[in-house]
Design brief:
It contains 2 helices and 2 strands; from the N terminus they run H-E-H-E. The chain is mainly α. It has a two-stranded parallel sheet with strand order 1-2.
Length: about 100
């Protein structure tokens, strides 16, 4: 059985890549922890993928709709490559610039 939901999360006051990784790992531990679902005998494992866009690095497209679209695009890249990647997330990067 495969279920899928998508949510929008806004993180603020992130000043470094290390801080971003720390907060994403904390988020994953909180949200993707196995859940006990009666009558299943053992906890049900949850999986997830996350697409990110970073403002103001993506400032050329500061409209909320565009930022959401970029995060969605990054989400589907993360989902497509989940078997071959270590992080469970992907950061959107504009085609003309390197990823942060």
């Amino acid at each position: 059985m495969n279920f899928s939901d998508e949510f929008l999360i806004v993180l603020s006051d992130i000043h470094s890549y290390a801080e971003l990784r720390h907060r994403l790992n904390r988020f994953k531990l909180t949200v993707l922890s196995p859940v006990q679902v009666p009558p299943l005998p053992s906890p049900f494992p949850l999986k997830g993928s996350l697409g990110l866009t970073l403002y103001p690095l993506d400032a050329g497209h500061a409209e909320p709709e565009r930022l959401i679209s970029h995060a969605d695009e990054a989400l589907y890249i993360a989902k497509r490559h989940k078997q071959e990647r270590r992080p469970w997330w992907h950061i959107y990067s504009m085609p003309s610039s390197p990823a942060p």
